[in-house]
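Per reviewer request, we include the raw input and output of the structure prediction for the construct analysed in the revised manuscript.
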Amino acid sequence: MKKSLKNPSHAKGILLVLLVVPITLGLWLLVNKLGYVGSTVALVSTVLAFFLYRFGAGKIDKKAFLPLILILLVSIAIAIYGSYIYTRYVAFQEAVGGSGGIFSAKFQSRLNANFSWSSLWFLYGKQIMFSLVFMLIGVGVFGYDLVKKDSK
């Protein structure tokens, strides 16, 4: 049977968009490790989310925007926190000479002792703001264009 473009399958689209969460985390860590600003990954994730939703649902309509934006916000938050943990882990490895894994009690106690939301905001505030800007640009330009094309 052919997929009807008049009745998109929102569930299939949302399930495919959930793939964006681990992809965003992986790309963010890779881009940061290469020495670039990770917030550019937000634009790539936004474009990918719209393509995956369109592939799964058949078309994009206005109902898709809120779930897509929420999933993108969660994926960016996980990526930023993952980057924070990774940089702390690299510093921990340098301090202790390579002993202890990321799940070791020694690292976890040091991570929890040094964590505060203000330090996270201080270290990643600009990246958080730029990520939101890039995501909104992607949603506004790319998403609007796809909704316009699919409504014809």
